Amino acid sequence: MPKDPHPPQRSRLTQKDRQSAATKARLTDAARRLFRQYGYHNVSVTEIAREAGVTHAMINAHFHCKAGLLYELIQENNDAQIAAIKAGLPDEGSTMERLRWVIETYARHDLEDTQLLAVMQAYYWQWPRETEDRNRAHLAQALSPIAQILNEDVDLQKLSEAEIETLIEAIYAIYTFGLRPAIYYDATTESCVDTIMHRVGRLLDGGRVEARSGGT
Fold first, then answer.
1. CB 202 within 8 Å of CB 99
2. What residue spans define the domains of the chain?
3. Do domains 14-63 and 66-212 have the same CATH topology?
4. What's the CA gap between 98 and 90, in Å, rounded?
5. How far is CA 123 from CA 65, 161, 205, in A?
6. Cα 31 to Cα 133: distance, rounded to the nearest angstrom
7. Cβ partners under 8 Å of residue 24, min gap 6
8. 66-212, what's its fold?
9. How many CA atoms lie within 13 Å of 200's alpha carbon, on the beta-carbon side?
10. How far apart are CA 213 and CA 94, in angstroms?
């Protein structure tokens, strides 16, 4: 057979790419050790860089700031949690019961350290565009169990894909705002989840009314 005159190009990592990946790995490993030992707020970027054997400028170059390093570590932890939730999603129960299981699971995880949650919520408004793009892709995975539950609700099946997506985004907004009492007023996880689910219930009531009217 004749050879393909335009064979596919193989992706090759350059020496610079390998060095960059190695530096990022050293920084995340160092940050994980120091945060675990001393706490996020008690560790400086200079100390992280020294532990990793690089200059502190590398933190800004690879992660934007110290909060960006924390974000990287949280995302690594979240990957395992997302997989566990997808695997353990209840098949039985009402829409609200199943949603509560998902939201309660995420809330317990997010509220393990309210100070770190506050750092992340502040960082959401500061990070660069590429981090926003990554986070949106990651968030789509995290919210996929909620999407599955809504799509399986017979009372919502007349809604369009865009309308379901709007409901999912609204649930996420309710969830995010609903955790704030735990940060500022020492509210319990259970009370936060109760408030979140009450608001989600009102939201879905409106969605069902829209579905009965025929949707868009």
1. no
2. 14-63, 66-212
3. no
4. 6
5. 10, 30, 33
6. 23
7. 62, 63
8. Tetracycline Repressor; domain 2 (1.10.357)
9. 27
10. 22
Per CATH, domain 14-63 is 1.10.10.60: yes
Question: Which residue blocks in the chain are alpha helix, DSSP H?
Answer: 15-38, 45-52, 57-63, 66-88, 95-110, 114-123, 129-142, 144-151, 161-178, 180-184, 189-212
Two structure tokens written together for 38: 């001393």
- Both structure tokens of 79: 């990957």
pLDDT of the chain along its 216 residues, tens only?
A: 445 555 555 556 688 778 889 999 999 999 999 998 999 999 999 999 999 999 989 999 999 999 999 999 988 878 888 888 999 999 999 999 999 999 999 999 999 999 899 999 999 999 999 999 999 999 999 999 999 999 999 999 999 999 999 999 999 999 999 999 999 999 999 999 999 999 999 999 999 999 998 755
